[in-house]
Write a structure and sequence with these properties.
- The complex is a heterodimer of chains A (about 525) and B (about 90).
- With about 525 residues, chain A is α+β, with helices and mostly antiparallel strands.
- Chain A is built from 16 helices and eight strands.
- Chain B has one domain.
- Chain B is about 85% helix and about 0% strand.
- In chain B, helix 1 runs parallel beside helix 3.
- The longest helix of chain B is centred in the N-terminal third of the chain and has 30 residues.
- Classes of the chains: A alpha+beta (about 525), B mainly alpha (about 90).
Chain lengths: ~525, ~90
């Protein structure tokens, strides 16, 4: 039984359908890139055939940081951030805070890239954080993450766009719940075989019903992440701090009041890291040091969730004495309800709260949400075979539906071909653009065919199968070496690509046969692509 | 007057719902308690922004009388704007 009367139900259904038609493909792009971005860390490791070191923070960093601190201007010792990239190269950014050429608050300082193992300086760059050269080792995973976060559109337009996509999804889920007359029954519906349209409708309802809670979770957290920085922070800062965003960030982050600027010797960073590793059982993913060289200096060691914990944790050490100060809440200086809820937003959106297992579950649910988006659009088209907009969508759905994954495989190919000797940052971007352009051209060539899905799926399948082979051909390590070196995750991504590619090739042959048979029977509409 | 109702509903669900969500978020730090760490009044408005927008948007579609709905959302906007104005 519906929760609202018939007139309201009709209105909600109209907005549910039209918002989906107008923004559904755009929403699909955000969801499918987010699904891939869940594995960005693993894709980063895969793209360079495994990091050169498994424990980047267990290298003797203390002596190197002290040495480098002497080579930068004293103002840049205000904050130091230290983190490894996909290959295990350590990035050390000595910085202070300023306003960049775009007039935005930004970190400014000197960034060093330290080779894994030797910690030799591989590169030294100076300037604003947003203007420093991109890290070539992490070019592929970074490209995929930013594609999902802001579609590589300028800030804040990209965040507005992805936030809007999140809101459309949020509304689709809420209206879906209200409109569902038989939610419990729909969770167990058996797709009818009496007609293709009914079969597709039942499969859409089945996948959509099971995806509702996850869709709500993703849409809510995603809309929050897009709008928090682009709208929320500036507006709340304006009301509460007279527009001073830096002051608001300091209050939220819980930066300690300056205790003393008196110069002091720094305790051994390696010892603090070792104690933190022993305490949490994991390597930190990020280390930040405030006020290097001063008596009030603190080190913040950020660990991703481990054990039964869902939230990440930040462990604080006094840099002057080396004493442990305990776990710092994500927000503020004391535990609070607001900070706890905020700390859950990341794990719930990225799915990294239980390691690889939760990530793989999030990938599966993300694929289901992508499927629901596309099948919803297809149903709308099939019900309106004579509408011109339906014909346009009939071409656009397979073009975007398969074009974006083809673009992503193009990005990976661009990275692999350029990493050994070229510029992988540009190579990745060009690979994606070429992949997408190829999909558009293919759609143009096949426009008269009507059913283009099978061809798109064959292209995607071939590209996916080719990726592990190209990785090997461009100098990547083989499976026995990878397993021996503890890089099983690279083998896992290879296997996922091969399995996905073979599945797509199999489906393309089956889809083509169905379409040929349907065309033969005169049942296939030019506007309706086959499954 | 279905034409007028349609226009009102579009205005209510589009710009008014978004503006209402933004001004509600902006005024919340002024009346929400700071909590144990003194930051709850800053983070909850940002956390709840998507929900506020969704609630106003949904209300615009569910309200049977668009004129009354427009009045309600306009009143919410004005009340929150007055609260913010009183702060400066």
């Amino acid at each position: 039984m519906s929760l609202v009367n018939q007139a309201t139900s009709k209105r909600l259904l109209a907005v549910h359908g039209w918002s989906g038609v107008l923004l559904g493909l755009f929403l699909y792009v955000v969801v499918i890139t987010g699904t891939v971005a869940v594995l960005s860390q693993e894709i980063g490791a895969w793209s360079i055939s495994g990091a050169k070191t498994q424990a980047p923070f267990s290298q003797p960093l203390d002596a190197r940081i002290r040495q480098l601190a002497q080579t930068v201007e004293p103002k840049y010792r205000e904050d130091i951030t230290i983190y490894p990239n996909a290959s295990g190269t350590i990035l050390v950014f000595f910085h202070t805070h300023g306003v960049n050429s775009a007039g935005k608050p930004d970190d400014v300082g000197v960034r060093f890239l330290l080779e894994p193992g030797t910690l030799k300086v591989a590169a030294r760059d100076e300037g604003y954080g947003s203007e420093l050269p991109e890290d070539r080792d992490s070019a592929l995973d970074y490209f995929i993450s930013i594609l999902h976060i802001s579609l590589h559109a300028p800030d804040p337009v990209g965040l507005y766009l992805t936030g809007l996509a999140g809101f459309v999804m949020l509304f689709a889920v809420i209206s879906g719940i209200i409109l569902h007359r038989h939610l419990i029954k729909d969770l167990f519906v058996a797709p009818r075989l009496s007609s293709r349209l009914l079969n597709r409708r039942d499969r859409h309802i089945l996948a959509g019903s099971w995806s509702l809670p996850f869709g709500f979770l993703l849409a809510f957290t995603g809309t929050f992440f897009s709008f928090a920085g682009a709208i929320g922070l500036p507006i709340v800062a304006m009301v509460a701090f007279g527009g001073d965003q830096e002051k608001m960030t300091e209050t939220l982050v819980g930066a300690p009041a300056t205790v003393s600027e008196r110069p002091a010797d720094m305790a051994n960073l390696d010892s603090m890291i070792a104690r933190s590793v022993a305490r949490t059982g994991t390597q930190p993913s990020f280390v930040s040091i405030a006020h290097w060289g001063a008596a009030d200096s603190r080190a913040y060691l950020y660990h991703l969730p481990s054990g039964r914990a869902v939230e990440a944790s930040t462990h604080v050490y006094d840099m002057a004495s080396g004493r442990y100060h305990g776990v710092k809440p994500d927000l503020g200086t004391r535990p609070s309800f607001g900070s706890t809820v905020y700390a859950w937003m990341g794990p719930l959106h990225f799915g990294h709260f239980a390691g690889l297992l939760s990530k793989l579950i999030w990938v599966s649910l993300g694929l289901a949400a992508s499927y629901v988006t596309l099948t919803g659009l297809r149903l709308w088209v099939e019900r309106r075979p004579d509408m011109p907009s339906g014909r346009v969508l009939g071409v656009a759905i397979p073009m975007v539906g398969y074009g974006v994954p083809i673009g992503l495989t193009g990005a990976a190919l661009g990275f692999l071909l350029n990493y050994p000797a070229g510029d992988p940052v540009s190579g990745t971007a060009f690979g994606f653009v070429w992949g997408c352009a190829f999909a558009v051209l293919l759609a143009g060539v096949l426009i008269r065919r009507g059913d283009a899905s099978a061809v798109f799926m064959a292209v995607l399948g071939l590209a996916m199968v080719a990726l592990p082979l190209v990785r090997l051909a461009t100098g990547g390590q083989g499976w026995p070496d990878l397993v021996g070196a503890g890089h099983a995750v690279v083998v896992m991504i290879d296997l996922m690509l091969l399995a996905g590619g073979v599945f797509a090739l199999h489906r393309s042959r089956r889809g083509d046969a169905i379409a040929r048979s349907a065309r033969g029977d005169g049942q296939a509409s030019a506007a309706v692509p086959a499954e | 007057m279905p034409a007028r109702d349609n226009v009102l509903r579009w205005v209510m669900a589009g710009p008014l719902a978004l503006i209402a969500a933004v001004v509600t978020m902006a005024s919340m730090p002024l009346w929400l308690p700071g909590g144990a760490a003194g930051i709850d009044n800053l983070i909850w408005p940002i956390l709840l922004f998507p929900a506020l927008w969704a609630v106003y948007f949904l209300y615009a579609l569910i309200e049977a009388r668009p004129l009354r709905g427009t009045g309600v959302i306009a009143a919410i906007i004005l009340a929150n704007a007055a609260l913010i104005y009183s702060r400066f």
